[in-house]
C-alpha cells in the first residue's frame, strides 16, 4: 500500500474513570480527523497512551476505531510492549478488525543491543498477520533505530516502514532504498513545513488530534505552496503543544482540549493530577486564539 502525502494523526484514547473506552468519543474524534483531511490514523500511539490501557480496553479501542474508520483511511495500531510474546498477545487482540499495520517501538523496560532489536522486529514480522512499522522513539526506549538496524530490516516483506523524527535517517532510507516498499512517516512536528519543502511529505503527530482545523489549514497551505501561511498554522499547533507541556500534565491538558472539541474522556494516564483552574483557563484561551473553538 502506497501511503499518500499529508498529515497522519496519532489519535487520543478517551477512557472513563475505570479505564474503559468511551466509544462515542472515539467515533466523533475519528470523524473530526477524516473531515479535517487526515491522510491516515494511528490508534494507540504515544498520544493514545497505548502503554497504559488494559487489554480489555485495547481490544475495544481497535474494534470501535476500525468500525468507525470503516476502511476510509489507512489505520495503524500501536502494539508496543516489552517482549515478543506480549506484543503477539496484543496483535491477537486485534482479531479480525480491518487495520493496515501495527506500529512497534523497541521494548522499553530494559536496554537492548542492535542485534536484539533486529531479532525482535524480524521475529514479530514473521509471525504477524499485519504489516509491521518501526517506531523510532529513543527518548522512551533508550535505543535508537539506526541506519545499521534499518539496513537489516528494510528488505523484510512484512516490515513496511518507520515512524521517526530523524530527518537524516529518512533521507538515508529514501536515497539508499528508493525501490523498496518501505515508507517513512516523519514525526518532527516543529519542522513539518520545511520537511514538506524538502520532499518529506508524510507527517505523523499526536497534536493534530486536538488541532484538526489548524491541521487542515496547514496542509491546504502546503499543497498550495504557501509556506508563509503554513508556518502560521504550524505555529498555532506548536503554541497549543507548548501550552500543554507547560502544565503539570501535558496529557491531562490534552484531555481538557478534547473535551472542548466535544470528545470527552480521560486521554491521560490514570495517575495524572487534575488540572488547575488556571491551566484549564489557559488551555481554553489558546484553543480560542488558534481557532479550534469559537
Give a description of the structure.
With 294 residues, the protein is an alpha/beta fold. The chain is built from twelve helices and eight strands. The chain has an eight-stranded parallel beta sheet with strand order 7-6-5-4-3-2-1-8. Helix 7 (167-176) links the parallel strand 6 (159-164) and strand 7 (183-186). Helix 1 packs across helix 2 (55-69), helix 4 (114-127) runs parallel beside helix 6 and helix 9 (212-223) runs antiparallel to helix 10 (227-245). The N and C termini lie far apart (38 Å). The mean pLDDT is 97.
What's a concise summary of this model?
Helix 10 crosses helix 11. This protein is α/β, with parallel strands linked by helices.
Low-confidence stretches: none
Helix coverage percent: 40-55%
Q: Biggest β-sheet, characterized?
A: 8 strands, parallel
Distance between the termini: 38 Å
CATH top level class name: Alpha Beta
- Number of alpha- plus pi-helical segments: 12
Name given to the CATH architecture: Alpha-Beta Barrel
Instruction: Report the CATH superfamily.
Output: Aldolase class I
Structural class, judged by helices and strands? Answer: alpha/beta
Total DSSP E strands: 8
Shape: globular
Q: How confident is the prediction overall: mean pLDDT? A: 97
CATH topology: TIM Barrel
Tell me the β content: 5-15%
Whole-number total of structural domains: 1
* Strand line-up across the major sheet: 7-6-5-4-3-2-1-8
Amino acid at each position: 500500500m502506497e501511503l499518500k502525502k499529508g498529515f497522519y494523526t496519532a489519535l487520543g484514547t478517551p477512557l472513563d474513570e475505570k479505564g474503559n473506552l468511551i466509544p462515542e468519543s472515539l467515533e466523533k474524534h475519528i470523524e473530526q480527523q477524516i473531515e479535517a483531511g487526515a491522510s491516515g490514523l494511528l490508534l494507540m500511539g504515544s498520544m493514545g497512551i497505548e502503554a497504559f490501557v488494559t487489554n480489555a480496553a485495547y481490544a475495544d479501542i481497535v474494534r470501535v476505531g476500525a468500525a468507525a474508520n470503516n476502511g476510509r483511511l489507512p489505520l495503524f495500531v500501536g502494539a508496543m510492549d516489552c517482549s515478543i510474546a506480549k506484543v503477539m498477545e496484543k496483535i491477537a487482540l486485534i482479531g479480525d478488525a480491518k487495520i493496515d499495520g501495527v506500529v512497534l517501538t523497541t521494548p522499553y523496560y530494559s536496554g537492548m543491543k542492535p542485534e536484539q532489536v533486529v531479532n525482535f522486529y524480524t521475529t514479530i514480522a514473521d509471525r504477524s498477520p499485519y504489516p509491521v512499522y518501526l517506531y523510532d522513539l529513543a527518548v522512551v526506549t533508550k535505543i535508537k533505530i539506526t541506519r545499521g538496524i534499518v539496513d537489516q530490516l528494510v528488505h523484510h516483506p512484512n516490515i513496511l516502514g518507520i515512524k521517526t523524527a530523524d530527518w537524516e535517517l529518512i533521507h538515508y532510507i529514501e536515497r539508499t532504498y528508493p525501490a523498496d516498499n518501505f515508507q517513512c512517516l516523519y514525526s518532527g512536528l516543529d519542522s513539518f513545513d520545511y520537511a514538506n519543502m524538502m520532499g518529506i511529505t508524510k507527517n505523523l503527530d499526536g497534536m493534530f488530534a486536538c488541532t484538526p482545523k489548524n491541521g487542515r489549514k496547514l496542509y491546504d497551505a502546503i499543497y498550495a505552496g504557501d509556506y508563509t501561511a503554513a508556518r502560521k498554522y504550524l505555529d498555532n499547533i506548536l503554541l497549543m503543544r507548548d501550552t500543554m507541556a507547560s502544565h503539570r500534565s501535558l496529557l491531562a491538558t490534552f484531555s481538557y482540549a478534547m473535551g472542548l472539541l466535544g470528545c470527552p474522556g480521560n486521554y491521560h494516564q490514570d495517575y495524572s493530577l487534575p488540572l488547575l483552574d488556571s491551566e484549564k483557563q489557559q488551555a481554553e484561551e489558546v484553543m480560542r486564539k488558534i481557532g479550534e473553538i469559537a
